[in-house]
Amino acid sequence: MEESHDDTARPSRTHYHHGDLRAALLRAAEEELARTGIEGFSLRAVAKRAGVSHAAPAHHFGDVKGLLTALAAEGFRRFLETQKQVMAQSAPDPRSQLAAAGLGYVRFAQASPALFRLIFSSDRPEFSNEELAHASGESYDMLVRQVHAATGRDPNFDPQALQDLQAVWATAHGLADLLAAGRLKQLAAMPQDKREAEILKIVVRGL
After folding, report:
1. What is the pLDDT of residues 75-127, one digit of tens each?
2. Where are the domains of the chain?
3. Higher pLDDT residue, 13 or 132?
4. Which CATH architecture has domain 14-62?
5. How far apart are CA 135 and CA 77, in angstroms?
6. Integer Cα distance of 97 and 89 in angstroms
7. At what angle do helices 94-111 and 130-151 cross, to 10 degrees?
8. CA 140 to CA 66: how far, in whole Å?
């Protein structure tokens, strides 16, 4: 009798190097998060999506909180990279760079809304985790440097500069969140170049 070749119920035979498997699980986790949201997110579903054994995510990340923490750290790195890409295409003066970072904020939220909500609106990631604290801290530190450069005042020591930082952050985040949620319909309906020109103006309007 010939051995059956029906693999529908078998675990994947795909082999990964250690680093490749971690990256594959993070990609699968982001896809699963986008599909189900936080409430429906599970290690088993991530493993199935990645084509690995159900124990693989737990081996790498411990539990759901550990996986979401690692995904949030990756999210912050990509968030910062998106901002830097926009800044690299913008004028080099401090005000333009600050506005460009705000536009990068919005672009990231529109491109990766589930990841955006995870890093800014969820309490599931463990923000005391060293990797996540470092990744989120880098994003905040860049904002501090930009506000310092644009205003001549250091938000770490000057209350007015700290208010400027909070205003810029709140403006960029509000635009990103509302546009990602399908609000601000007039702004969203504009052609991309005009919409982004408006965003650049709005981000630094209060400075």
Report:
1. 999 999 999 999 999 999 999 999 999 999 999 999 999 999 999 999 999 99
2. 14-62, 63-203
3. 132
4. Orthogonal Bundle (1.10)
5. 6
6. 9
7. 140
8. 22
CA 27 → CA 50, 57, 159, 167, distances in Å?
8, 12, 41, 33
Query: Is this structure's pTM higher than 0.85?
Result: yes
**pLDDT average, residue stretch 31-57:** 93
* Whole-angstrom distance, CA of residue 105 vs CA of residue 95: 15
Among 25, 38, 22, 30, CA closest to 115: 30
**Average pLDDT of the residues in 39-48:** 93
Selection from 160, 83, 148, 91 nearest residue 116 by Cα: 83
Q: CATH number of the domain at 63-203, please?
A: 1.10.357.10
